[in-house]
Amino acid sequence: MTRTTLLDREVGRAMSALSAAAKKGIGDPGLAGLVMIRASQINHCAFCLDMHLRLAREGGESEDRIQLLNAWEEAEDLYDERERAALALTEAVTLLTDGFVPDEVYEMAAKHFDEAELAHLIGLITVINGWNRLMVSRRIPPGGYTP
Amino acid sequence: MTADENVRYAPEEPARLQWAKHAPEVYKAMIRLDAAARQGLDPKLYELVKIRSSQINHCAFCLDMHTKDALAAGETVERIVQLSAWQESKHFYTEKELAAIELTEAITVLTDGFVPDEVYAKATKHFDEAELAQLIAAITVINAWNRFGVTTRMTPGHYEAGQHK
Lengths: 147, 165
What we know:
Chain B: Residues 24-105 form the Carboxymuconolactone decarboxylase-like domain. The complex is a heterodimer. Chain A has helices spanning 9-26, 29-42, 46-58, 63-67, 81-94, 103-112, 115-137.
C-alpha cells in the first residue's frame, strides 16, 4: 500500500538542525559517515543507505571501508580504534532493545572521545536512528537523495 | 522518589554523562524537534506512546518522567500498568489508541522488520494523513529521547510532573 510522504516542515527543519549540531561537534565527516551507514544497515533503511553511501563516496571514503562496514569487527585493518569504538557504540545505541548500552562499549567510547565529543557522537547516532525511523515507517524509496 | 525510609535500597548510580551540558545545541535542537512533533496529537495518547516506547527501550528516566506526566494529565494507573501487556488488555484502550501503540512498537523495534503493512494500514484507519505523519514523528522523537536517556544512563526518580513541559 502507498504510505504517506508527509513530514511536517518544522519537524524536518528541527531534524536537520539536530543533525547539523551533532556533526559540528564531532568535526570528523569520515567517522560521521561510517556511523550513519552502520545504523542504517542495522535499521534496514534503504533511503538512508543510498544517501549515506553516496555521501561517503563523494567524501572520498574508500570502497573497501564502505563494503566491509557490515563486518567491521572482522576487518581490523580497515578501521582504527577510535572508529571501532564509535561503531560499537553505534550498534549498542541502535539496538537498545538488546539492553542498556553495555559498560564495556560505553567505556571504550569514553576512552577515545572526550565528554563533549561523546555527547555529540551520541547525538549523531540518535539522529540517524531518527531519520531511519522516519524513512522506514513511511517507506520512502531509495534514490530520492540528490546532493 | 517515594520510598520507605526504613528500607535499605541499592545505592543510586550517577549518570554516565551530562550530555545536555556538553552538547547544548544538540539539546536545544531536541527540544525544538519535540515541540514540532507533538503538534496536533492528543496529549493523553502521546503519553501512552511515550511510555510504551520507553518500556521497550528500557529507559528508566523516560519511564519516570512519562508515567508521572501521564498521571498528572488524568491517565489511570490501570492503563499505565496494563500497557506492557496491551494485547491481552485491549478493552482498557480505544481502537485508535491500540493502533497507535502497535505502530509505536513497530517503529521502535525497526530491526524486527520494516513496519509491517498491516500495522501501518490499521494506523491509517484511525489517523488521517497529517495526524499520522505527526504520530510517526512523535514516535521517532521519544525513541530519540530514549537513546539519550539509556546511553548516558540518566537517573530516574527525581522528575516532577510538568517539569519539562
